[in-house]
Amino acid sequence: MSISNLMGTSRVALTAYQSAIETTARNISNVGNTDYVRRRTDVGALISPSSGLGFREQDHIDRLESGFIQRQLWNKNQHLGQHETDELIYSQIESLFNEPGSSGLSSMMSEFWNSWNDLANDPESNTARAIVKDKGILLSNTFSRLDSDLNNMQKEIGYDVEGTVKEVNLLLNQIQNINEKVSTNYSYDLADSRDAAISKLSELINIDVTERSDHIVSISTGGDISVPLVNTNFTNDLKVTIQAHTAYYSTIVSFSEGGSIGSITGGKLGSLLEVHNNSIPNYLNEIDALAIAIGTEVNDVHQSGYNLDNDTGINFFDPKVSGASDFSVSTAILEDPHLIASSSRPDESGNGSIATRIADLQNVNLLRDEKFSDHYNSIISEVGSKVQESSFLRDSQRIVIDSLKNRRDSISGVSIDEEMSNLVKYQQAYQAASRMISVADELIQSVMALI
Questions:
Q1: Domain boundaries defined on the chain
Q2: Could you say which DSSP state residue 231 is in?
């Protein structure tokens, strides 16, 4: 090898190992950055006689990633985001019902029916009548509280939907901006930033991600009913409209460039929409049905009975009740509990058969072929099942995601021990290349001295 070739080869090696040292140092500085993907300099490509110098980053530095594992993580993230949100919301709904609890609706219904039993045992007692009135008021207040709490929760979830949609739109625009930059000047830093944004997006909404050969990423949502969300110069922003109905609210999420709301089925947003638009309205409807049925059935029996003054045809509950929100004891009973009927016939003050019949309503299948308590318990059971199911699914998804992250980190994560070992190796190689240049320079000086 000629002296000039030795000098040139050493200079190329020096540049290659300097690049390797810089890459390794950068890896070490990002050891705690979960969004960073480890780099590795391809020294062989740099010192190859045909490689030349001044190539793009991706021509001589590898970004150590697994696209397959990353796409799996994005897919699992949307399920985890959905199940975590489900568990949180359904746990809050469960706490609103406060079952079993002394202030829960189940307890209030039992106390109400028991008060009629007590009146049946002492039909001439005004004290027993006052207790029946008080238990009716407690029952109506509990219905009203449940209705108010569920409506307030639905309203709060609507605000969460708005906030989540804003976050989704910010991420979509961030990804689109990175796509524009990538189209003209692709870099690994841009790829890291975009992957981090996609990871956050996958927790909020169900997405499908496709990366083209030119590194441009296309994102859609909806699976079979696919709705494009972002491309090079395109974003399909989401919009929120909250509509107030008689008994509840509904939230409509639409797309600025067209798409079906039915496409949003996963992530935090999918969970919020499902609970807001379906679950809570269903619970409200079921509680309304229970309140109306109790009011109707109690009034039908009570109207046929007689009080101590032989008055009849009196409603115990307000007959105009439309649901849990306005379920209440009638004004007449509130003003004078003496009007409460207990006898099935006039002039029989010791007759408590009407009170008995009202107490026995709790044991009759009067609401969709169910007892009042069974109908209510089915609501509670459904909420409890949702909590348990979402908790189980969340834990299952977390295990899968942790496993995928471990596999990804084994490829893309920075190991400080490995990087320090590489740093020592590259430094020694750099010193050797530097020494070769020094030797070549000494040889040149020696030759020049002989001329």
A1: 3-64+413-450, 73-400
A2: -
Q: Position of tokens 């109690």?
A: 298
Q: What is the mean pLDDT of the chain?
A: 88
Q: Running DSSP on this structure, what letter comes out for residue 254?
A: E
**Tokens 């105009």 — which residue?**
320
Band of the pLDDT at 53, cuts 50, 70, 90? Answer: very low
β-partners of residue 218 are 210
Please tell me the chain's helix, strand, coil percentages from 3-state DSSP, rounded to the nearest 5.
65, 10, 25
Q: For the chain, first and last CA: distance in Å?
A: 21
Phi-psi region of 351 (alpha: psi -120 to 50; beta: other; left: phi over 0): beta
Q: What are phi and psi of 235, to 5 degrees?
A: -135, 135
Q: What's the token pair of residue 180?
A: 């524009």
**What Cα–Cα distance (Å) separates residue 24 from each residue in 61, 391, 413, 416?**
11, 42, 13, 10
- What is the distance between the alpha carbons of residues 24 and 44, in angstroms, rounded to a whole number? 16
Which residues have CB under 8 Å from 148's CB, separation 6+? 325
Residue 234 contacts residue 257 (beta carbons within 8 Å): yes
For residue 84, count CB atoms less than 10 angstroms from its CB and return exposed for 0-12, middle for 13-18, buried for 19 or more. buried
- How confident is the model at residue 174, as a pLDDT? 95
Closest residue by Cα to residue 284 from 148, 139, 112, 159: 148
Overall average pLDDT of the 75-90 stretch: 96
Sequence-ordered list of residues with C-beta below 8 angstroms from that of 274, at least 6 positions apart, any chain: none
Cis preceding linkage at 123, omega within 30: no
Answer for the pair 242, 251: CB distance below 8 angstroms, yes or no. Answer: yes
Whether the model pTM is above 0.85: yes
What is the three-class DSSP state of 9? helix
pLDDT tens-digit series, residues 23-42? 888 889 888 888 899 988 87
pLDDT value for 171:
97
Q: Is 230 helix (H, G, I), strand (E, B) or coil?
A: strand
Side-chain half-sphere CA neighbours of 433 within 13 A:
19
**Identity at 240, one-letter amino acid code:** V
22-26, 56-60, 103-107, 259-263: least confident range: 56-60
Tell me the per-residue pLDDT of 228-281, one tens digit each, with 9 for 90 and over: 999 878 899 999 887 776 566 778 888 888 777 778 889 999 999 999 999 999
d(CA 77, CA 80): 5
